[in-house]
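Suppose a colleague, Dr. K., hands you the sequence of a protein chain of 424 amino acids and asks what its three-dimensional shape might be. Before reaching for any lab equipment, you can write down a predicted structure in C-alpha cell form. Begin with the sequence itself:
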Amino acid sequence: MQARTAVDGSQYPPFGSYVWRIFDWIAPGPTLMQFVQNGLLEFSFAYIVGRTRLPKSIKVLCVAAFTVLPPILGTMLVVWKDVAVGACYMGALALVISVTTEATRNQRYVRIAMALFLVWCGMAYRFNAASGAFPLVMYAVWKLLGPCDKKHQKLKRIMGCAMLTLALSAVVWMINNYRLPSFERLARNTNSDSIMKYDLIGISIFSNKAIVPDVNGHPLSADYLRKIYDPRHLNITANNDHEHRVAPKLENVTSLWISAIMANPVAYLQHRTAVFREYISLHRHDVFYVTHPSVDANSLGITFTATPFKSYVTEYLWRSRSADICRPWIYYLTSLILVAALFMVKASSYRFEALTAFSSGYLYLMPMYFITPAADLRYNFWSVCGCVVASILALAGICMRDRDDGQRKKKVDNASTINTGAWK
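The predicted structure, expressed as C-alpha cells, is then:
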C-alpha cells in the first residue's frame, strides 16, 4: 500500500516501499520484486562459489543445496525484507570478490562503489541491518587499497571503515525517517516500545515481581504474566492476554525498562536467553515460523493461486520444522568450526573472504540477543547465508592448503593479506 501511495514509516523502514514502487510500476504485484531479490541472492552466491577452484560438480551441488536449505528457501518464498538484506549483502560480497589484480583502476572503483551501494541498500531495508555491514565495508576498502603490513596503517583503515559505515548509517537514517521527496518527518517508530514492554513482561516472570501495570495502572502479578508469556513472539504473548489486563501502552516505558533491568539484571538475561534460544532454535521442539504459506486477504487485488508444486514445497518446509537442518544454530556452529580450522591449518586461500562472510553473519546475529521481538526463522536469514558462504569458502581453502604451502614461502603469512591467486 505504501509503495502505491505514500510512505508513513510506522514499524517498517520506508526504503522497501520506495524500491517496491519501481518494481510495482513495471509489473504490478509482488512477483517482480520477489524474482529480483531472489535472483540477486542466487546469482551472487553462485558467482562466489563458481570463482573458487572447487570441482564443478561440487559447485553445482553447493548452489543446489543452498537453494533448498529450509532457512533459505522458506524465507525466499516470501517478499520479506530479510531476503532483500541478504541479497544486497551477498551481491556486495560477490562484487568485491570480482575485483582482481587484472582489473583496471576504473573497474575497481566502479565495482567497489557498486558494492558499497548494495551494502547501503541492505542497511536501509532493516533497522538492525547495519551491524552486519561493517565487515563488508572493510573488505571492500581493503580490496580497493590492497594489503598493508604496518599496524598503524591497519588501525587507520579500520577506523576509516568504521567512519564510512557510520556515514552510510546516517544516510540510511535520513531516508527512513523523512518522506521523499518532501523530506517531511515521518511518524516515530514504535518498535522499541513494544520490545521494551515485552522485556518488562519477561523480567516480571523471571524475577517473580509485579512490574508491568494493568489497564488501571496497578501492577500485574507475575503469575498472570506467566500464563500469557511466550518466548517465541511478543504478539503471541499479547494475544494470550485474553482478559486484556496488560496496559496496551506504557507511559515512560523507557525509564521503567531501564529501572527494571538495573534492579533485576539476571531476570532480564534469563528472559533474553529464553527468546534467543527460540531465535536460533536451540531447543527440541519445532522451529518457529519457517515460512508464510499464502497471501493474506488484502484490498490490493493480490491473490495466491495454489499449485501442486507450491503445495509440495510448502509441505517440505513444514516437515523440516523438527529437523536439525532447519535450526540456525547448526549453521552458526559449523561455520565457526570451519573458519577456525581454516586459520589453524594456515591455509591462505579464501581466508579473508570467509572471515568477512562469517563476521558479517555473526555481527548481524549478535545484537538480536538484545533486540529481537520474536523467533521467526526469517530473522536469521543473512546470518545463515553468511555462515553458509563462510563454511564453503573455508572448506575450499582447507582443500587448497597443499597448493598454498608451496606459495607461502613467497608470501607473508598475514591474516589481512588477500589471496587473489586462489580465485578463478
